[in-house]
Design brief:
The termini are far apart. The chain is built from three helices and no strands. Helix content is 62%, strand content 0%.
Length: 45
């Protein structure tokens, strides 16, 4: 699933892993794409 989300967000897997581990913030556009792919609202905005 991580590889699919990274591909959909058009970022390298290491960038997605940095988001997942909390090292860097997830950009707003990526949040939208992640929620679109998994079909679930997970981010509070």
């Amino acid at each position: 699933m991580a590889k699919k989300l990274a591909d959909e967000c058009k970022v390298p897997l290491y960038t997605f892993n940095n988001w997942r581990s909390g090292l860097v913030k997830v950009p707003e556009l990526a949040k939208d794409k992640i929620e679109e792919v998994i079909n679930t609202k997970i981010f509070d905005r």
